[in-house]
Amino acid sequence: MDKETIKLEDQLKKHFGFSSFREGQKEIIESVLDNQHTLATLPTGSGKSICYQLPSLIVEGITIVVSPLISLMVDQVKLLRAQGYKRVTALNSLLSYEQKSKLLSHLNRYRMIYCSPEMLQQESFINRLKQLNVLQFVIDEAHCISQWGHEFRPDYLRLKDVIETLGEPTVLALSATATPKIQDDIVKQLSLNMRKIIYPMDRVNITYSVLKSDNQIEKQEQIIHLLEQAKAPTMIYFSSRVMTEQLYGLLQQQFPERKVAYYHGGMEQQDRLLIQQQFMHDQLDIICCTSAFGMGVNKDNIRLIIHYHLPTNLESFIQETGRAGRDGKQSVSVLLYTKGDETIPFQIIESELPDDSEIERYLHAKQEGINIDIESELSETKLRFLNYHTHKLTQTLTQQSEIEEELKSFRDHRKQLKINSVINLVRWVNAEDCRRALLFQPYQEHVRPALFDCCDHCGFNIHKWEIDLNIHHDYKQNWRNILEEMFQ
Amino acid sequence: MIHYQDVISHMLYKLNGERTISSAFHILRGKRSSQTLQDIHLFGLQPYYGIYPKLRSATYHRWIDSFVSQNLIIIRDESFECTGKIHFQTGNLRDKINGFKYHRVDLDWFSAIQLVCQTLSNIHKQNKHFIPVIDDVEIQYQVKQLMKKYRHHDQLVHLFHNELKSVLEQIGELEAELMVQQFTGANRIGLSKKQLADDYQVYEEDIHLTTMSAIHQLIQIVEYNTEEYPILNLFISQKRHQSITDSAEKTYRFLNNGLTLKEIENIRQLRPSTIRDHVVEIATQLEHFDIDSFVSKDIEEKIIRVIEKVETRRLKVIKEQLDDHISYFQIRLVLAKYNHSKVSVMANG
């Protein structure tokens, strides 16, 4: 073991309390510390963030972390601060003008700055960064840069210019869901000479299973039956807030001895924080949630992930099931499917992109110089799409009608891509081959064999799977006892 | 338990026929408009002012719809009317909730206490790393100041625990229970209001209102016994008396930045009389507000002498007794300040 190795492990222990690296982490960190632009893929739940957090603690200078999701950013900053690392902050659209300018003037106090890609389009921010010593530039969820990806974010395409403006700091592009095609696209879009560090995406300790039903009532019976057999930390994903609350009500009635809670984006920030923390502290057994939950949730012992609805694509499915079994023990994914369930993701896709009349009204408003009304009317994703493409198109086209045609054709292209993604997922549900192989073949040549049971097509029978972690909730009911326990 | 239906019924009963249906909503949210501030005094609804700052319009309208469908009220064009069926159980609610007095301090105080509780419990269990349940940076700063002030954290844990226990013994058992269930410690994350509502089989709104009432009672006990509760007292903010309208507050901020009335008129594009009304409002509401830059000590004394002589608050009568160059504006300012000194004399006597 050379000197360098000893040092990295010491730093890991000192800052994060782990005594050894997980697969891939060390190689990526060494590459970054070697000042090599790096593209790395690691499966979800394998500790991607340590790959840039640790170098930022070692290297002098500032680390920029571009992250597409505000909630993810906020959670990361909170976690780091809780670990005692205070020189970290996040710049995003949630900040008021005052908060933002205050933060900008004190930016030199921080070593790690999380920001949304949109923030990097603001001149005041870029100018401020130019004055500082930015040495690392991290692109989290780097697949967002690719039009082939399920979550294409136009603003990611501008990162190339930002990196140039900042004098080319060491770039680390990270993803947990990048096919070889998308990996190539990331390198191409950034036009950097990048070292690729690709780790297999498959999770060997997760067993995959699908349960079909003829209608919603049968589906609910399945879920109850499933939970009777499996007494262990469980997440149940839903596509709608209303269903999340409804099923919560049902399960609470059905399982009075277990602690059930729900979580979705429509709840108050304070309540969201409490529920999330309760789940982390093993105070809850079952959580009914939408995809809003789970960003940055570091809970090791989740044993069962149920999908009540179809996610909008395979990548989300891999990401959400990937929250299970971070401790390496056997965990199970169950997707519940009733024929026709795909209409929900189709509706979601429909609502994410602007329709013809929205495109027309948007362009009209732009021409008249009255953006405000239409901008407040459109959702953030629609507006992001329109702003980016219109800006691009006006550089080459002058005819309003041409721009309109092009916008509509871009929109159709994106929509088709997303629809295909859902169709792929339905195909996966209905396929008869090994689920694990089908799920991960697009990402890697050889899918590893399962560590425990593989899937329902390889002999696993969910009806025979039983687990009892014997969770016992000892709730002090009197306030005097609660206080006593806190302070004695 | 305070039930929201009782509170709403009581409010609508008092406002019956005189105001629009949304006036109760504005009162609950603590809207700082002169209309709302006037309404609470006129209809005796001070306890409810600002006790539900995050109330959503959709929620309120859902309540009202259910009142209408139960035939408790009838909505008219500009107003509404209570039918004979409206009923409520408010008991001694007036002693237990005081929104007008505490709406500026209640939630911040509660948040601070929650964060102190979480911090000290974690320190006590030697757990350095935890995610604060309160995000507000200002409150986090205050709690940090407390940690600096008391160097011996073991002792602080002990003191805080004792203060909390002692003050909670003085309110109702249910209220104390609801309060503490929301607290977070080292090994236990507090429950949300929704979770408590499900546990107690009541509405989330009921938990909210009962918690607010518990907070008001606790603050009252703490602030009247400052020596017994030094730590709990630290977090009662001093901004409570600023029940001024938003527009007056803007003027107040300009005044604090050293602008003259004339300059404020120009910047805000308001009439001189409006700005003067703001200054009077500020002087009426903020005890510490200094009127010296508008009224010299000499004139102030003259005005006070007249006030005491004529024994009236009628401006015209007072003005007639004074030199012509003394303005109504100056008289109003002195009256505002004079009222404060009267009140404090009474309180001390």
UniProtKB/TrEMBL annotation, chain A:
Report the residue ranges that make up the Helicase ATP-binding domain in this protein. Answer: 29-196
Q: Which GO terms describe its biological process?
A: DNA recombination; DNA repair
Any one Gene Ontology cellular component term annotated for this protein: replisome
Under InterPro entries, the record lists:
DEAD/DEAH_box_helicase_dom (IPR011545), DNA_helicase_ATP-dep_RecQ (IPR004589), Helicase_ATP-bd (IPR014001), Helicase_C-like (IPR001650), P-loop_NTPase (IPR027417)
Keyword Nucleotide-binding listed = yes
**What does the record give under GO molecular function?**
3'-5' DNA helicase activity; ATP binding; four-way junction helicase activity; hydrolase activity; nucleic acid binding
Q: Which domain of life is it from?
A: Bacteria
Coiled coil (residue ranges): none
Instruction: Name the UniProt key words of this record, in alphabetical order.
Output: ATP-binding, Helicase, Hydrolase, Nucleotide-binding
Domain Helicase C-terminal positions = 222-384
Q: Which SMART domains match?
A: DEXDc (SM00487), HELICc (SM00490)
**Entries under NCBIfam families matching the protein:** recQ_fam
What name does this protein carry? ATP-dependent DNA helicase RecQ
TrEMBL record, chain B:
What range(s) does the Helicase Helix-turn-helix domain occupy?
A: 247-335
Identify the Gene3D superfamilies for this entry: ATP-dependent DNA helicase RecQ
Q: Which Pfam families does this UniProt record tie to the protein?
A: HTH_40
- Top-level taxon of origin: Bacteria
Name the UniProt record assigns to this protein: Uncharacterized protein YpbB
Q: Which organism is it from?
A: Tenuibacillus multivorans
